Amino acid sequence: MTETTETDAKTEQARPDHEVVIVGAGFAGIGAGIALKGAGIHDFVLLERAGDIGGTWRDNTYPGLSVDIPSPTYSFAFEPRPTWSRLYAKGPEIKDYADHCVRKYGIMPHVRLGTTVVAARFDEGADLWRLELAGGGTVTGRYLLSCQGALTTPSHPEIDGLADFAGHTVHTARWDHDHDLTGRRVAVIGTGATALQVIPEIAGRVAHLDVYQRTPIWVYPKIDPRLPRGVQELFRRVPATQKATRFVTTTAVEIIVTGVVHHRRVQPLVKAVERRCLRHLKRQVKDPETRERLTPRYGFGCKRPSFSNDYWRTFNRANVDLVTDRIDRITETGVRTVDGREREIDTLILATGFKVFDISFPIVGREGVELTAFWKQYRRQSYEGAAVPGFPNLFLVPGPYGNIGLSWFQMIDAQIRHALRVIGEARSRGVTRAEVSRQAHDRYMSWVERRMPRTVFLNGDCATANSYYFDEHGDAPWQRPSSVVAARRRSRSFPLDDYDYSTRVSAG
Ligand code: NAP
């Protein structure tokens, strides 16, 4: 650990526009703003490229959108909502919850909408981050919190002819509500957690639906009761009852996480979950051949599973076809598979997910090193999923091996606590730079390497899963290989001396 304090006449010049700049006004950015205010840091700005807050819950408005983690868990622990209409809230309710949090905690005055960051550079002479904005202008901040989310940039499949299609093409993350699907011939490409919600919702309206599946998804039955007025009233009057409900739903979600991160130890549990899913499939799909094609051939947890009571049974419908032949190309009028068959459509729905590892602008740290290029060359890595040596005063919410559990809110809670502890320490030392030491970072990454073989990613049968949890190096940097409980404990207890604290202001 080092500590250098140089007072300099130029300190005044080195004062940034804001103490903290947050990029992204989804739940992570909102949570960061609330936590900063709670810590007494009011000098922060939240930059958001879109015209509204809410991140993925603003962008995704497709039919059937709902959360697939129980709402008492998929929400801030400090801001329970007694009025969830059901256990798994619908998309608009979650967007409304985001609006509510922003209002209640006074975050909106800190938000700059329609502000796109095109680059962030660390100014080594002034210990601050300089963010370049689209259309000109800069914003500077002592600390940068990258809260850009993972489900931000829609992924368009690399399929020949996509641009030639003369009908209507829509990505699920950019739903076109003006395009009525009633009576249309529709194709959906993709069978992930999004498709699983869209398909049952539209199947009854369209004339015909072709579902192009490359990899089947594991589906667990969804226990999704309505939460009647009486229950909502109970939650409101006796908050402990909602806390208890959160405890139960969080424990249930944690069991799934255990199957992922401690896969080697709990294989019988994972196998039991798989059997439960297969029984569900058998009950839902009549035709054995269709059932066979819907059966995943990789271990549960290798890729994102989901919950649904109506996805699989949609394939019983006479107007729905499951197509598992590989797509050869899109033509002007339809989709052609490698067997030469072309199926005509007038609407193409891309349920093809997101570029989950993309950071939407270059982040340039000390000595001109750019973060994404660094990871491309040396593999994705970070200390505690939050910080990278060479990138002082930068916190990733989350970075590689930083996501915990299944609920984004658990990740937000832990990763923001991490950032705030370091920022608080730097402030109390009266310094302007906090950078994780190489040694601490390497120690964390060695721990990750030792833990990964226990996870489903290295231990399960993931070869055919085509999972976005894996990156181009074959690593699975999406998830921290530990339980939620352990990760939260760690965010409270990691040694603050794992960071070097210093002040370097321009002599110049
Ligand atoms: P996804 O899980 O990445 O699924 C994309 C689908 O598109 C996959 O089935 C994929 O096939 C297919 N695909 C991509 N390129 C293709 C190509 N060239 N040809 C054929 N198929 C192609 O994306 P998503 O369904 O949008 O879900 C993304 C994440 O959003 C989920 O994992 C989940 O975390 C989140 N989500 C959450 C909720 C919620 O309620 N909380 C709801 C929906 C989504 P392969 O599998 O073969 O790659």
From TrEMBL:
Gene3D superfamilies: FAD/NAD(P)-binding domain. SUPFAM superfamilies: FAD/NAD(P)-binding domain (SSF51905). This is NAD(P)/FAD-dependent oxidoreductase.
